[in-house]
Specification:
The chain has 2 helices and 18 strands. It is mostly beta strands. The chain has one domain: monomeric porin ompg (Porin). The protein has a 12-stranded antiparallel β-barrel with strand order 1-4-5-7-8-9-10-12-13-16-17-18. It has a 3-stranded antiparallel β-sheet with strand order 11-14-15, with no helix packed on it. The N and C termini lie far apart (about 55 Å).
Length: about 300
């Protein structure tokens, strides 16, 4: 696939850029900023007290086949997905911040039975992020704990997608770590979410995500890196019956980030491709690739109201 060759070349470029930079002269190292892909959280890093961040992640995903287990079984479907994640983050106290995420989606399906469109709002996640260890204060690593709740904000109509949101409550727990070495930044986090039954008599499957990433700050304004998104979903339930539809997806790809500290602005982009996919039941529209963009604008609420 042409896109696969482009991705491979981009990965090699990213890795060679990091190696070349490591071989350069020692100097005060700029810091790489947090990951780009939408499912990533802040891992082990905190957020300044009184600062507020408005964040938008946009993802474009395409698929042109149906899969079962690890195999492609036919080309009878084409799926285009457009997803915006509207996020916020606020520093409550030293070592404690809160963040929210609300999906807004549009999915177009082209099948032998006809075209179909799904669109709406997903359920909102609100997470408290507590710093346990801080590398900047002498600890060996940055370590943080996540504790969150899923709020029933999802659309409930004939055009909505129950998997993205169906007015359900849920609980989330996780842990994240970040390590800085010169201009290198290493991130990883694991979280687990469980859900109660929501609308349409549907219960979202329990979900485990494991994200990992590496970034290198080429300068005060640009980072390059690689990100990995692994997700396991248990079986969903409909009318209390298990649907035999558990799944595993793992996507990896390169990213680039532009940052401008005086304006509190960060813009990033990433392209990820599937490394491994497995579906217990027939899966129409398993993403062949994901193109993502991230925009962050940070405001100092304390100075705004002084």
């Amino acid at each position: 696939m042409k896109l696969g060759r482009i991705l491979s070349l981009a990965l090699v470029t990213v890795l060679l850029s990091g190696v070349a930079a490591l071989a350069g002269d020692a100097a005060p190292a700029p810091k790489a900023v947090p990951p780009v892909t939408g499912v990533f959280g802040p891992c082990g890093t905190g957020f300044p007290v009184g600062k507020f961040a408005a964040v938008a992640n946009y993802a474009w995903k395409e698929a042109d086949h149906v899969r079962h287990y690890s195999d492609k079984i036919n080309d009878n479907i084409k799926v285009d997905k457009s997803v915006v994640l509207a996020k916020t983050r606020y520093g409550i106290a030293p070592g404690l911040d809160i963040r929210t995420c609300t999906p807004i989606y549009n999915v177009d399906l082209d099948t032998p039975a006809g075209d179909k469109s799904q669109h709406g709002w997903g359920d909102t996640t609100a997470v408290l992020h507590k710093i346990l260890m801080n590398q900047g204060q002498g600890d060996v690593i940055n370590l943080a704990l996540d504790m969150g709740v899923v709020l029933p904000t999802g659309s409930l109509d004939k055009q909505s997608n129950d998997f993205i949101g169906n007015g359900a409550w849920g609980l989330l727990g996780g842990v994240g770590a970040t390590y800085f070495y010169g201009a290198n930044r290493f991130d990883t986090e694991v979280n687990y979410t469980t859900f109660w039954e929501g609308g349409h008599d549907y219960t979202h499957p329990d979900r485990m995500r494991w994200n990992a990433g590496w970034a290198y700050a080429l300068s005060a304004n640009f980072d390059l890196g690689v990100e990995s998104n692994f997700e396991w979903n248990d079986e969903s339930q409909k009318f209390g019956e298990r649907m035999n539809d558990s799944s595993v997806e793992w996507y990896v790809g390169p990213k680039v980030t532009f940052k401008y500290a005086p304006m509190g602005l960060i813009c990033g982009g990433a392209v990820t491709m599937p490394v491994y996919r497995w579906y217990e039941n027939v899966k129409p529209g398993s993403d062949d690739y994901r193109v993502e963009f991230k925009f962050i604008k940070t405001f100092d609420l304390g100075s705004m109201f002084n």
